[in-house]
Amino acid sequence: MKFKPLSKIIINEISDVILSIPESQTQELIKQITKSKRIFLIAIGRVNLSLQCFGKRLSHLGFKVELVGSLTEKPATKNDLLIVASGSGESIIPLNIAKKAKKIGCIILHITSAKKSTIRKLADYVVEIKSPTKLKKYNSKKNEKESLSDSASKTKKSIQPMSTIFDQVLHIYGDLVAIQIIDKMKINKINLWKYHANLE
User: Fold this and answer.
1) pLDDT tens digits, residue range 52-95?
2) Tell me, what CATH number does 179's domain have?
3) End-to-end CA distance of the chain
4) Which of 27, 42, 43, 179 might form a disulfide with 47, Cβ 3.0–4.6 angstroms?
5) Torsion-angle region of residue 84: left (phi > 0), alpha (psi -120 to 50) or beta?
6) Could you tell me how far CA 136 lies from the centroid of its own chain?
7) Global pTM?
């Protein structure tokens, strides 16, 4: 497939998934971010990179953001928010971090594609990204997908390999949420530069 037609398909896929995210879930995410003392982030793989981009943007808005496992990570408390991004909701490291955070008393917000999962059971709040997860396989004989878990209803189809669209949507969604926070808190965009790295 040529580049331009493929680009249109991918852009439409991303748009379709983003527009399917419930507004109420986004507003709850914003509420929890703005009321928390610190925001801790945990994910793995490509999803981790997208979540880190969201964390970087939140730090530009003046929020205290911690990457779980980083050298300078601060201790979590019951006044903090843990954002756990996992399409399947079963990734081993995010799951165990969520369990630990639950014992500490952190608020847990789970960004996922899974309608039911172990992490989702632990979470206080959820943002659903209706995309394929790693717990789905393609059955070429029947030409249909067989679920290995109870994934999100009305999952959006994608021509992209594996769960690519999840981390793509997560990245863009993070920027959309940041813009809404800027509007809600009436932040002067010029002032954001004071939080930008300068050893560049």
Assistant:
1) 999 999 999 999 999 999 999 999 999 999 999 999 999 999 99
2) 3.40.50.10490
3) 39
4) 43
5) beta
6) 19
7) 0.87
